[in-house]
Amino acid sequence: MDTIHDSKILNYQIDFESSKIEVKVVIEKKQVKILFEDFFAFHFEDQLPDSILLDIVEGDVNSFALDNKELLDKSKDYSWPMDYEYVEDMINYIKENSYKYYKVQASYGLNGWILAKRVLIE
């Protein structure tokens, strides 16, 4: 996703009804929209004004639970991101439903991840 490297985040919007996350960024005075479609779950940290995206990379779904162990352990009793007994059940659900693990990396500010079926850059 070279087109978004070092782009400034203007805003983001989460549409739960349509299962879409839209992130508007500006790079070289041009606005670009990053659209995550059919998302399952997301987690953002360090939301700051003038956040700068370094990259969005696709992570290995198998490493999702290990990468986010502390967060998942803390949220499991609240059925987030879903109700599951064993972490393998959640990973199987993610795989069976073709979700991809997108890591949002920042050089400054907002970072996190999104489990979604696809990402488009417009």
UniProtKB/TrEMBL annotation:
Superkingdom of the organism of origin: Bacteria
Name of the protein this chain belongs to: Uncharacterized protein
Species of provenance: Metabacillus niabensis
